[in-house]
Amino acid sequence: MRKLYIFDTTLRDGEQSLGITLNVQEKIEIARQLVKLGVDVIEAGFPASSPGDLASVRTLARELQGVIVCGLSRAVEGDIDSCAEALREAEYPRIHTGIAVSPVHMAQKLKLSPDQVVETAVAAVKHAKKYVGDVEFYAEDAFRSDLPFLARVLEQVIEAGATVVNIPDTVGYATPWEYGEMVTYVREHVPNIDRAVLSIHCHNDLGMATANSLAGIMAGAGQVEGTINGIGERAGNTSLEEVIMAIYTQRSRYGIETGVHTREISATSRLVSRITGVPVPAHKAIVGSNAFMHASGIHQDGVLKERTTYEIINPEVVGVPKNRIVLSARSGRHAFKYRLAELGYQVEAERLETLYQSFLQLADQKGEIFDQDLHALVGGNIVEDNEISIQQISVTTAGAARATATVTLELDGEAVTDAACGNGPVDAVFRAVDRLVGEPVTLEDYTLQSVSRDKKALGEATVKVRASDGGLIVGRGISTDIIEASARAYVNALVKVKKIANQSYGQVSAVISDEVPVINRQ
Ligand SMILES: CC(=O)SCCNC(=O)CCNC(=O)[C@H](O)C(C)(C)COP(=O)(O)OP(=O)(O)OC[C@H]1O[C@@H](n2cnc3c(N)ncnc32)[C@H](O)[C@@H]1OP(=O)(O)O
Ligand SMILES: CC(C)C(=O)C(=O)O
Prior knowledge:
Elements: E1 2-3, E2 5-8, H1 24-37, E3 41-45, H2 51-63, E4 68-74, H3 77-86, E5 92-100, H4 103-110, H5 114-129, E6 135-140, H6 147-159, E7 164-166, H7 176-189, E8 197-201, H8 209-218, E9 223-226, H9 240-249, H10 251-254, E10 256-257, H11 265-276, E11 293-294, H12 297-305, E12 324-325, H13 333-342, H14 349-366, H15 371-378, E13 388-398, E14 402-411, E15 414-423, H16 425-437, E16 441-450, E17 459-467, E18 472-479, H17 482-502, H18 505-512
Parallel strand pairs: 1-10, 2-3, 2-9, 3-4, 4-5, 5-6, 6-7, 7-8, 8-9, 11-12
Antiparallel strand pairs: 13-14, 14-15, 16-17, 17-18
Helix pairs in contact: 1-2, 1-11, 2-3, 5-6, 6-7, 7-8, 8-9, 12-13, 16-17
């Protein structure tokens, strides 16, 4: 197996993301997690940029063990001196210095000729070598450079002592096959390339940083640079977790390994997101919250039968305890039954079908269905009573107290409508239902509570009504609309009152079973 070195620049290039400035405590917290993750190099900052960053790099250099700590600098003596000062106490210090090599950067930005650039590059490496043995040279904007010139620069800096040479796609302009070709070119045209590790560093301006990095690795690069969650200048950098897991999942085919403890990936991603304040998109590969969730019936069925049908990574490998089956209107019977069984409900086929149809109706209204919703569904509080069902409710209010409700019910197979005024919308609805059902009851109690999470949480209404024979009957109703939940609860209670009235006392418990927890008969 070929070893691939992982160079993490979350604290340097990642920190160049708009809006991120990390203080020393924040950098140290992330760096400690990166050590746990098992990266080989931590680029801690750009010491010449500010006294604060110099102090941060110095602290990390002092505190971190078992990892190379690196500081970035221009090919400028003062920058290199700052790096050396910051890294003085590092167990394994590395100075990363360099200069741009593309025509536009040399002519327009640096205002140097190619020969002057070579001279500056060599002088910078020699200066850094006075302080540390491990010097990485970056040929900025290498991808847009003239390749024979790039080869010349690299040969000279290796001759000057560079131990690592980095050929970045600074502006994220490459495509994978072109980037791979550049790596191949360098390996074939820099005569002393075997004396240095060849490093790659890709930006994501065209969304190809990971693909380009993999192409570079396949073409023989020995070190890959990137950041956790892909944060970085402009559109960001290569997401290290993506490269690491691409290598991991294909390790037998690629013959490449890293020293990364993949189970730390998820924790590292969450920490970086929390500290930098940059959220991880839900659909982000490897570390997005949806990465191991299955939302549609066909996939859920497949995963339940055999995980690998729709999962290329075992979530535990990246530190996610388990995948998740998310129930929605796109779920099928297999997933529905599976979740019910997990909640302890063993439901026979016929009832399962009825519940599943109710579940679909609810899911169409609600989107995601949570466990609390399922409990309510199985408890019978969502399933519409088939003797009286609510077809339509419309309520108008005028001021806080006055409301008018028009309710249409299906009563014994026939649609009937009536309207009533009341003291608020719920009272108006109950009065309209009373007029339609014609069952004389007195409302004793009414409560409303939320039974699940999120903005579309279900409201559960509970009513207690006193029947004309003195019995106290409980009705429950659930809906995402609290007026509808209240109407369902009231109708549910009235249906029970009617049933009780039509049956002998001996049959009551059989008819209403455990759906009616309170029946007081005096
Ligand atoms: C591809 C990358 O370099 S990614 C790293 C980016 N990181 C940073 O920029 C770190 C934060 N930057 C800073 O704190 C400041 O820009 C500093 C301290 C580096 C320099 O600040 P200043 O001296 O005020 O210069 P400023 O940033 O305005 O301009 C950059 C100068 O460095 C030159 N320069 C840029 N890169 C290099 C290089 N690699 N080697 C030598 N000179 C360089 C530019 O040509 C320009 O020179 P000029 O002043 O002669 O025109
Ligand atoms: C400093 C170098 C490595 C860089 O960040 C780039 O070229 O993108």
